C-alpha cells in the first residue's frame, strides 16, 4: 500500500474531494462526486490503516481514537492542502475518511451562489442556516459568506467547529476559531462562554442537539449574527427539526423565539452534471413576515407555497433551480427527479 503522504498527495493531484481507507478495499478517491479505487493498489489491511493513521495522529489523538473508536481532527498537509479527518472503526477494524479542504477560501460568486448570499453577509443580527446532506458544500458556502464579512466589515467573528475546516486570515475583522477538544471540551460550554468573548458574528459548525440549538437561538436573540448548519433537505424540514428537538411543553416558546430571529435558510445540493462536474442546486427561504407567521403558528406545511410565490424578494424553490438546470442542459431530467422533493412541481416547471 502507498504511504499516507503519497495517498494525500494523490488526492490533491487528482483534485479529489475525499480519500477513503477501508479494510479489504483499495484506497478510494471521490472525484466530482464519483468514487474511484486507486489503480494498481491492493486491498488494505487493518495493520496498514493503523500504521498510516498513527503517522498523522498525535500520540494523545491515537490514544483517544483506540479507546473511543472514533475521532475527528484536522490535518495540515505541507503547503498544498488541509484535510478534515474522521477516523472510525467498522467490523472491528480501523477506517478513515479524509475530506480535502481548500487553502484559499472561494468567494460567493465563484461558487455560483445566488446574490442573496451577499445579503446574508450584510446582516447585523439574526439566524441564518445552511442545510443539506453531508458532502454537498455547506461548509464552503458558510466560509465564503464569513470571509466576505471579514473583508468588508470590522467585526469579531467567532467560529466553534469540530474540527476547524477553513483557516481565515483576518482582514478588516478579527477572527477567533475554536476547535472541539483542542480549544474547548464541549459545545455547550463553548456556546455559553461565547457571549463573554465580545462577538459580532458566531458560526456554530453543526447544531447537533437540544443544547446547541437552544444556545444558538439565544445568541441570535441577544443581538448577534449567528450562522449554523443542519443536515436537513428543505426549509420546512429545517424548521420542524429545530422545533421537534425540544420537549413538547417548550415548543410554543421555541416557535416564537425562532420566528423572531430567523433571517434565512439556504438549502443546497451538489448534483452530478452532464459534463462530469458537480452542479449547485438550492432552495432559499427568507424570514419575511409571512414566514415568521407560519413558523410562530407551527404551520410549516405552508412554507413551500410561500417560497414558490415570493420570488420577487429572493426566495426560490429547489424545484425551480432543478428545472432551470435541466433547461440549460446542465443536468439530466433523471438527476433532477431523483433530487426533487415535489416531483409534480418539477414536471410543471420544466414544461412551462
Which features does this protein show?
352 residues, Beta-Lactamase, Rossmann fold, seven-stranded mixed sheet, 14 helices, 38% helix
Task: Please give a structural write-up.
By secondary structure, the protein is an alpha/beta fold. It has 2 domains: 98 residues, 2-Layer Sandwich (Beta-Lactamase), CATH 3.30.450.90; 236 residues, 3-Layer(aba) Sandwich (Rossmann fold), CATH 3.40.50. The chain contains 14 helices and 13 strands. It has a 7-stranded mixed β-sheet with strand order 9-8-10-11-7-12-13, sandwiched between helices. A 6-stranded antiparallel β-sheet has the order 3-2-1-6-5-4. Helix 6 runs parallel beside helix 7. The protein is globular and about 60 Å long. The mean pLDDT is 95.
Helix and strand arrangement:
Elements (H helix, E strand, L loop, with lengths): L3 H10 L4 E4 L6 E4 L2 E4 L8 H11 L2 H10 L1 E8 L3 E10 L2 E9 L14 H5 L5 E6 L6 H15 L3 E6 L12 E6 L7 H7 L7 E4 L5 H12 L3 E6 L4 H10 L6 H11 E11 L5 E9 L2 H9 L5 H6 L9 H10 L5 H7 L3 H9 L1
Number of DSSP helical runs: 14
Outline the biggest β-sheet: 7 strands, mixed
Structural class based on helices, strands and sheet pairing? alpha/beta
Task: Classify the beta-strand content into a percent band.
Answer: 15-25%
Q: Report the mean per-residue pLDDT as an integer.
A: 95
The assigned CATH architecture of the largest domain is: 3-Layer(aba) Sandwich
CATH superfamily of the largest domain: P-loop containing nucleotide triphosphate hydrolases
Could you tell me the number of beta strands?
A: 13
Amino acid at each position: 500500500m502507498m504511504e499516507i503522504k503519497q495517498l494525500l498527495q494523490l488526492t490533491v493531484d487528482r483534485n479529489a474531494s475525499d480519500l477513503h481507507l477501508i479494510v479489504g478495499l483499495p484506497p478510494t478517491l471521490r472525484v466530482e462526486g464519483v468514487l474511484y479505487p486507486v489503480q494498481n493498489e491492493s486491498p488494505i489491511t487493518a495493520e496498514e490503516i493503523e500504521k498510516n493513521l498513527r503517522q498523522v495522529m498525535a500520540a494523545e489523538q491515537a490514544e483517544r481514537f483506540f479507546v473511543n473508536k472514533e475521532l475527528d481532527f484536522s490535518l495540515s498537509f505541507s503547503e498544498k492542502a488541509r484535510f478534515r479527518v474522521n477516523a472510525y472503526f467498522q467490523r472491528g477494524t480501523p477506517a478513515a475518511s479524509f475530506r480535502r479542504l481548500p487553502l484559499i477560501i472561494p468567494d460567493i460568486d465563484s461558487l455560483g451562489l445566488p446574490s442573496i448570499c451577499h445579503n446574508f453577509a450584510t446582516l447585523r443580527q439574526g439566524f441564518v442556516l445552511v442545510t443539506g446532506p453531508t458532502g454537498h458544500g455547506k461548509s464552503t458556502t458558510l466560509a465564503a459568506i464569513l470571509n466576505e464579512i471579514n473583508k468588508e466589515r470590522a467585526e469579531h467573528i467567532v467560529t466553534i467547529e469540530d474540527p476547524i475546516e477553513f483557516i481565515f486570515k483576518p482582514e478588516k475583522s478579527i477572527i477567533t476559531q475554536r476547535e472541539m477538544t483542542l480549544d474547548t471540551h464541549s459545545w455547550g460550554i463553548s456556546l455559553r462562554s461565547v457571549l463573554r468573548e465580545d462577538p459580532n458574528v458566531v458560526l456554530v459548525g453543526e447544531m447537533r442537539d437540544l443544547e446547541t440549538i437552544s444556545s444558538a437561538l439565544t445568541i441570535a436573540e441577544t443581538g448577534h449574527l449567528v450562522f449554523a448548519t443542519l443536515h436537513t433537505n428543505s426549509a420546512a424540514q429545517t424548521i420542524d427539526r429545530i422545533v421537534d428537538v425540544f420537549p413538547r411543553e417548550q415548543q410554543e416558546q421555541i416557535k416564537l423565539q425562532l420566528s423572531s430571529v430567523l433571517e434565512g435558510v439556504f438549502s443546497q445540493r451538489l448534483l452530478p452534471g452532464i459534463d462530469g462536474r458537480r452542479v449547485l442546486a438550492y432552495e432559499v427561504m427568507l424570514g419575511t413576515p409571512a414566514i415568521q407567521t407560519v413558523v410562530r403558528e407551527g404551520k410549516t406545511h405552508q412554507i413551500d407555497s410561500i417560497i414558490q410565490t415570493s420570488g420577487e424578494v429572493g426566495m426560490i424553490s429547489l424545484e425551480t433551480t432543478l428545472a432551470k438546470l435541466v433547461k440549460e442542459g446542465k443536468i439530466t431530467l433523471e438527476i433532477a427527479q431523483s433530487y426533487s422533493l415535489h416531483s409534480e412541481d418539477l414536471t410543471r416547471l420544466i414544461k412551462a
